[in-house]
TrEMBL record:
It comes from the Bacteria. One of its GO terms (biological process) is copper ion transport. One of its GO terms (cellular component) is plasma membrane. Keywords: Cell membrane, Membrane, Transmembrane, Transmembrane helix. It is a multi-pass membrane protein. The keyword Nucleotide-binding does not apply. This is Putative copper resistance protein D. The chain crosses the membrane at residues 46-65, 86-111, 131-152, 159-177, 189-218, 239-258, 278-298, 319-340. It is found in: Cell membrane. Coiled coil: none annotated. The keyword Repressor does not apply. Residues 235-338 form the Copper resistance protein D domain. It comes from Methylocapsa palsarum. InterPro entries: CopC/D, Cu-R_CopD_dom.
């Protein structure tokens, strides 16, 4: 299924379902110009998800890699550190801009058009009279803090820790802008928020950690063959253990999230637009898991056994990690569509 088919499928499902998701208010009955509110919401959510995943996952990478990776010398990854720092300094403003666009899309949908965004009264009502207001103010504050932190000249564990915590709060707070906020007050609503938070944090650690992992695999080209083999195995092993835990949490929380959306009746997922998008997401995640399993259980053992051909095995691993990252970006697109597709009732 192509990206355009996914978008078309979700749009058809949204138009055909009378009950809207939480972050949409109500689905627009007519397109607002060439670029519809639906497109703005999907693209802004997709870009925002990717940027926040980088803030969280790429910062987290430097904690399970150990302090020695931040230093020059044996085992250090100075070029990976510089590349990750640059990526984070780009991700923060991108997250801020896309986050504002996301909120603008929500407000445009509530007021039935982009033209209403120019009215300050609509924004006042949005921030102070709707359920989205408090969490939106919090998220805008966090996004501003992320931009400020990335402008600081540090590249130590405290700097990464600040971005890690900001990214975590941004991922968790997304729950109040989507389907997870439909549970209301009480234990049921709290369980929906917790399941979403676990799912988002685990996915952020897995997908968001792939860019620095790829940078690290590329940096190994500048080492000698034996050093490259040893340090690549060490880096990949540390990442894979984190990913194993993350995937387990993703699967468990994903099942819980799906159960909440259909009130425990999983048969509702079949022959519905929401179910089609969800199964598309599951399919892409399955491809990611296949690649990750290949790296962990086939490619890494081959690299451990390699001698003179070690660099050839590292090159194959580098390609596999890059493919996994591309699939991760596609998963985020499908997740962006899924979040504004009304679940079956």
């Amino acid at each position: 299924m192509t990206i355009f088919q996914i978008l078309a499928l979700a749009a058809q499902a949204a138009e055909a379902t009378p009950t809207p998701p939480a972050d949409m208010g109500s689905m627009p009955s007519q397109p607002d110009g060439i670029i519809t509110i639906f497109h703005v919401l999907v693209l802004s959510r997709w870009i925002h998800f990717a940027a926040v995943f980088v803030l969280f996952g790429s910062s987290f990478f430097w904690f399970y890699m150990g302090r020695e990776r931040l230093l020059a010398g044996p085992g250090g990854l100075p070029k990976t550190l510089r590349a990750t720092t640059l990526l984070l300094r780009v991700a923060a403003p991108v997250a801020a801009i896309s986050g504002v666009a996301w909120l603008a899309g929500i407000l445009a949908n509530m007021t039935s058009g982009f033209s209403n965004l120019a009215d300050p009264e609509n924004w006042r009502l949005f921030f102070f009279e709707t359920q989205f207001g408090p969490v939106s103010v919090l998220r805008l504050t966090l996004l501003a803090a992320a931009v400020v932190v990335t402008l600081l000249p540090w590249r130590n564990r405290a700097w990464f820790s600040a971005l890690l915590h900001i990214g975590a709060l941004l991922l968790i707070s997304q729950a109040w802008l989507g389907h997870a906020n439909e549970g209301g007050e009480g234990l049921y609503g709290a369980a929906m928020i917790i399941a979403y938070a676990i799912h988002a944090l685990a996915a952020g650690a897995w997908v968001g950690g792939l860019p620095p992992l790829l940078f690290a695999c590329v940096e190994q080209r500048h080492f000698g063959p034996e050093d490259a083999r040893i340090w690549t195995i060490d880096v990949l092993t540390r990442y894979s253990w984190m990913a194993i835990v993350a995937v387990a949490l993703i699967v468990a929380s994903g099942i819980a999230n799906a159960g909440f959306r259909v009130a425990g009746s999983f048969d509702k997922l079949f022959d519905t637009g929401y179910g089609d998008v969800l199964f598309t997401k599951i399919g892409v995640v399955a491809l990611m898991l296949a690649l990750a399993s290949f790296n962990r259980f086939i490619a890494m053992p081959r690299l451990r056994a390699a001698t003179l051909c070690g660099m050839k095995q590292i090159n194959k691993l580098r390609i596999s990690v890059a493919a996994e990252l591309l699939l991760g970006i596609l998963v985020l697109l499908v997740a962006a569509v899924l979040g504004i597709t009304p679940p079956p009732q």
